[in-house]
Amino acid sequence: MLKKIYSLALVSLITFSCSSPSDTKTETPVMPAEESGTATEMNNKLIEQEENFDFVLPSPLQIAAIFQRAGLNYVPEITNPISNNSNYNSDFKMSLAFGVYSADLSYNVLNNQPQSSLEYLNVIRDLSNKLGLSAIFESEPLLESFEANINNRDSIVYILGKLQKNLDLYLDENEVRYKSVIYFTGAWVEGMYIGSNSIDTRNRNAIANRLIEQLSLLENLIKGLQNYPKKTEEFDPVISQLEGIRVQMEAISKSGVEQEDGSMNFDVTDDKLDILTKKVSDLRSFLIKP
Amino acid sequence: MKKIFTIFFIVPLLFAFQADIKDTCNDKEAKNKALKLLGDYSYSSSKTSNFFFVNNEQVREFEINLFEGEDYRFIFNNEFLPQEVEVRIYDKDKDSKFRKMLFTSKNQPSQKEFIFEPSWKYKDIYIDYIVPQAATEDIMKGCAVFVVGYKLNFIN
What we know:
Strand content of chain A: under 5%
Shape of chain A: globular
Radius of gyration of chain B: 21 Å
Radius of gyration of chain A: 25 Å
CATH class of chain B: Mainly Beta
Number of domains of chain A: 1
Shape of chain B: globular
Distance between the termini of chain A: 76 Å
Structural class of chain B: alpha+beta
Oligomer: heterodimer
Helix content of chain B: 10-25%
CATH architecture of chain B: Sandwich
Largest sheet of chain B: 5 strands, mixed
Largest interface: A-B, 65 and 63 residues
């Protein structure tokens, strides 16, 4: 009797293991479904997560490049001092600072400031260690490449692109891509701060137009922060100040007239520009304070 | 005796009836392949979209903002999907009655990687994935990868 049971059991084991769903023509990994999950339920959960972040944010370097192309002047003391780095203690503050310093690094690189660029890269590496992002520097000798090519802007720009790629890959692999919204908030505010505080008579209209052009991106940024999965009270003042900037930008954007070449020209009076600059500067002060 | 019965009969049966997910996604490889198509464009950002294939067709949309005077290259890698997913690119979002389709991958069913270079004049671009109804009763999951490149035109 026992022998029969063993035989039957063995046959059943072999049969089930041979008819495993993973035994398909392709080498598709198979994982158990969550206990309560039908495909539709799991899909709905996925859709909900993705709809909260249904946009693509550019890199800090690209934002810096947009203002640079509009004729931005280099103002040496405008960036966040490196010494401030030691003042940031919470994850939220460090994440924002990571973005702020990324924008500062881009600004220095695009303005051919090799020594400052290296210093800002070191700050970013320090913050990435504190934020558990050290892997973005470890996969390849980025810092060494940066130092070796410090006087070659094209190479440095390429290395910054690699750093951004590594960051995105790391966040995706660890399923925490939503964190990029905080990093980008820091970078975006710093980019806007540098842009709005570097205006002179020569570049005024070009930069003012570039500032207002950022409205759609800002709307997505606010949406991303509002839907952040582990939102804390620290988010509230940042969101409300971004909202204030959005209202001001939206009011100016209504004056936009499309030119023959498809570009937009906004009627940005000095008063309106001053209000916008002040709102951006206030938020930036809030972000960089400990 | 009871233990033997449990181990050899009940446990295999449990495994046999448990719903499994066949996940074809390999986003790292998909992204690496897409990055190779950047050419002389600089990397800006990327997005991995995950899909379960269910009993009905789904439309999944996301937005990308373009900036004046910039040259862009969009790269799509749909290689790691269990079924064909159509990519459509529009100038307005799905709620707009007057939106114009700028690109569809429908005419290239055998191709898994696509390149599209939009004009910045569209300002905001909307990318739709048309995810078909599941072709099998198995729970199938996959992912599509999207990479954005841009040119740093002003660097001499």
